[in-house]
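re: ur question from the group chat, yeah i did fold both. here u go
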Amino acid sequence: MAVLLTVLKIIGIILLVILGLILLILLLVLFVPIRYKISAARDKDDDDLRASAGISYLLHILTAGVTYEDKETDKYIKVFGIKINKKEDNTKPVNNEPEPATEEAANAAEETEDNTEETAADTETGAETEEETEYTIEEETEEKEEREDKEEESLADKINKILDAIERKYGNLTDRINGIRRKIRYWDKMLNDKGNRRAFELIKEETVKLLRRIAPKKIKGFIHFGFDDPATTGQILAVLGVFYPVLPKKLVIDAGFSDTDICGYADIKGRIFLIVVAVSLLRIMLSKECRRLWRLYKKKDMYC
């Protein structure tokens, strides 16, 4: 009895350890943020653009990203700062110098091919002369009659093909029009349904919340732009002026009316909590209206 209790105790401890590890991994995935960073820079009077985008997780234990510099793109995945996607150079030097043995074999093959071609040509010419002697006047008249019959049939076939093409084209056109009408009726019913409207409102609300929470927290930079036509520069500056109240304070935009150049730099940083994404998706999935909307969408082929 004591041995059985000891075994059960050990099994229980192992199960608790496994459950604890699973819970720890789940908490790390949901509550530890995924940090992202995007940066770009271009010097004045320089056509080369330098840009990079990357993400990091668990205090930079896991990092991944892509860089663009000198017109070349480089992707990387690092674990503890060590690349795990190193490219191996498997190219081998190619010896372009032909071997003498291969040259002799090639020459021999060419000679044999020439001999076979000559013999084949001789046999073909002999056969053609024999066939020409066998032709008679009756066979020539039969061939003329067959050609005339084929010309008449080909003209009728062409007319029939043209009529068939017109019929197919008209039939396809009507089918397309009917399909478009069915789709319009389907989407009109989907959008005007009260339950579907509530589902769309919930999806819109959760999407806006999610975008606000994963939006960049830090944006800084300096952007200078100018165009050949000062009017174009003024129009772009006027459009940016509309968004000036919501632009980050550390993002400076400078317009130049005397020079034509685009240069500057920009750094964007933010983070994403997967728990936020999971909660938004869970709210959408638990909504009756959203589930009904999904069922109706899966049956789209029945109505369209």
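okk and heres the other one u asked abt
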Amino acid sequence: MATAKSPSSTQSQLPDTSDVSAHVQARILAEALPNMLRYDEETVVIKFGGHAMGDDELAKAFAQDVVYLKQSGVNPIVVHGGGPQIAAMLKKLEIKSDFVQGLRVTDKPTVEVVEMVLAGAINKEIVSAINSQGGKAVGICGKDANLMIARRVTELPDPESNQMKAVDIGYVGDPLEVNPHIVDVISKSDLIPVIAPIGISREGDTLNINADTFASALAARMRAKRLLLLTDVEGVLDKSGELIGALDIETARELIRDGTITGGMIPKIEGCIEVVEAGVEAVVIINGKVPHSVLLELLTDHGAGTLVSARTLKKA
């Protein structure tokens, strides 16, 4: 395990357990400690987005989770989105914005706003939130040290035929090459990297990359222990509406075939499968609107969302 921090550096961040009995505290520790050992010195990539980013209390709880993981010997890497904030700024600047299959059409003026909002305002807000909880966060983007080399998206699958069709959506990127050296240097120290999903092409163009896609490519390249995708939904639900806690790849594909997994959850699960097949042990879809959902997923036996892995795993 990592060297324990001094009481003065962590005491203010730990939950108040003064009203919890010693027996209850012991049970909590007995459940958490084996899971902490499981993730000791392991890399966990966390995609932070959705409504949690716009809620001060949820953002605070998320920052606390990240700091606690770092103090516990885990190497958390945060990749964040920012769609609503980008939309608000574009509206303020009276720049029209359209979408094609969920991807924002990004012309030159739009990509400048995207970079300003993601790598500027939002990135530094998250960095400040983590630092205020006792962490040492550092904000970067995919352009730094050529972390994320990308190519412009020029074709997408047609929703009806599923055949690839040419599209022109501007400066929207798809990961081509991941160079994680800068992330390794940061995360192997006492620092926490917070990354905006902006990439750069081989020609030097700034490219807007979907945050899920960015986080998935980074997690796969770094062979992360876990990729956590914080969303606005609980995870995958069965046909009765109950949460499915864990799926192996074959079961996930069968649930797509039989219509249990539908709509926007299909590309998300297909992305999870690709990441697992690339070497990440498991990907978890988590409801980011649940306070401390990251700790619930990693440090409790029941977890907090739907875990997708090559074979059936325990939730934690």
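fwiw on the second one: Confidence is low (pLDDT under 50) at residues 1-14. Residues 88 and 94 are 10 Å apart (CA to CA). idk if thats what u expected
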